[in-house]
Amino acid sequence: MKIKPVPPAIFGIMIIILTLGLTAPLQAKSAPPKRDITIDDLISIRDISSMRLSPDGKYIAFQTVQRHSDRNDFTLQWYIAPTQAGATARIVDTGTEPFIIKPAGYLTGSTIAWTPDSKWIYYTKRKQDSIQVWRASLNTQQAQQITHKPGDIQSMRMGPDGKRLFFTLGRTHAEIEALKADGDRRGYLEQNPPLYYVSHGPMIPPCTDGKPRSKTFDKNLACLLTNWVYDIGAGSVRTAAQAELDALPPLDDTLDVIARMGIQMSKTVRKMQTPSPDGGRLAWIENADPEVYKGVFPLMALTATTADGTPLRCPAPECLDQDLVGFGGIWWHPNGREIIFKVNNDPHHSLTAFYGWTPGDQHVRPLLRSDDSLSGCQITGLQLICGQESWTSPKKIAALDLESGKLTPLIDVNPDFKAIRFTKVEKILGEDAYGHKVYGHLVYPKDYQKGKKYPLIVTQYHSYGFLRGATGHEQPIHAYARDGIAVLSFDHRLNRADYQKTAVFPGTNVAHFTNLHIKEGPATAVENMVDRLVARGIADPDHIGVTGFSYGDQVLSTMLLRRNYAAVSSAGPPSVPLHNVLPYSSNTAKAFAEIFGKPFSEKGLEMRVKYSLEAHASEIDSPILMNVTDKEVYSMLSVYYALTGEGKPVEMYTYPDEYHIKWQPAHNYWIYSRNLDWFNFWLRGAEDGAPEKSPQYERWRKLRESHETHLKRVKK
Question: Which of 43, 321, 330, 370 is an S-S bond match for 326, by CB 3.0 to 4.6 Å?
């Protein structure tokens, strides 16, 4: 699909076309040869978010975010497109400031709402560091700012009558700065939850990213939201009356709702409640057995009311899946009789599956089972409009036919990827030492030759959709393959499914860390898969690298205590810390204390030393590259100093003004580049000849020389 902007002038058209690089294709006798992927390709992907169908189903509005590593900035664009194959997507607004969820650091899309006549979209937009409501349509030459409040818009939704737009407002920027200034003068009282984090500074308030948030915190942590109404007909803004707020439908099933309602939601509350087209019946998912499934992610069952209002549960096994990580949506077929639903499917829950169930039937109608990831699906007529990703293709927008199950591409905002050559990708299945089913994807190296052994890199901890950079987006998977390295993109999602279903929170944390550190379940899952690739003659057992980020870093730490691999760590592998790096009152710290004992107690010292990477630094012979944020470096230093003190080949980079996930495009580029260089150097003996990288390789050659001397001494 071509992308055609709606600008105010011809010059604007030229600028936008040049920016997108989407000029009309020249006629040619044959397509040009495909090229290898680059790091720049991975950085500059236009990520689709905030997909929203118009009420009449004829249009879809969405947002894209594109990173620019050379300028260390972003291009945001809002589109409206007809939901027909071959139609044209039009840009109706642009921006440069993304929403950043703090302290996690990931980017999120704006909220979009349509007017009932399907002519206008209202959306949240950040400009000059202020989040306000804007509006645009296919027929306007320029987007219009609607609100001009001194604080940030936190949430926004259209009222039931379509005449009023409701939004919430947080503290003003001036109030936030005043609270921080006062706290800086007086100091911050340590409490639970803390007002001041060593890694993130004062947390006043935590909800300034334009997304809905709860009011469960201390008054100094809460946004103290106020409710407002924009009257569309009058074009005026006023305070919302309580009666108006009471008449609003509940918010969607989000983690925020769970935070407010607690574990009871997973036990008893109906979720994804969806009325039939005539409003006379209801479909939902509910806990399959509240007495058994008491965990955070219980097993859920598809249920619906019959014509007389009696609840009826679907008896087919396809109608059962985990909450939040399994069920992906419920929609009524326009015939008003059949329910369409989305779940994960075997083998090993690696497939996206859609089925139809007519209440009263014993079986379901298969619609689609695919390795592709389909997300954000919304129904219009006889089709679902979804975001679609494959292992070698970034997200597009496609239509799923409810009768045939056929997928039809609609919108491609990354057409340049058609010119990129990818290597073969194979899905592989496995188990950990305890029989938990796992899966991953083997990305073959370029010009693969059967019978030849290749270096192997393991990435973690999710593997679905476009294999861009693993969790955290720091491992350039396809660039590794381009350079002749095989990649095992590993998925841990269901490795802990059993206790997620049954362990009551916070007992889930205890089960989780026991499985991770003591039973070493995830590490054995990765090792089993790697050993199979070695046995198949694909992976060279002497040239294997493992990466880690966040939870994956803890898996990496456990693996390094078991075997020596070349390694890249992104959030730091503190494994089991010898001391507390979290408040004693946090659920994670409580779980650690229950499993390993309190720090510096007799049990605590014995257990923590046994499972601590820091305590075993002398035994670790893995070359380790650490990419650390400035807000998390404090938890990394003890491990880093322990390893360097033992003369181990370790290098650490710290990236300023970052959160858990690195959001700055320039940092994204250099992390990709350094990880690629590191593994090429240690696994292939290859160096990038760029002159500016010569100091890097001088350091690394010295590390390798001392490392080889150490290994020879150890062997003797």
Answer: 321
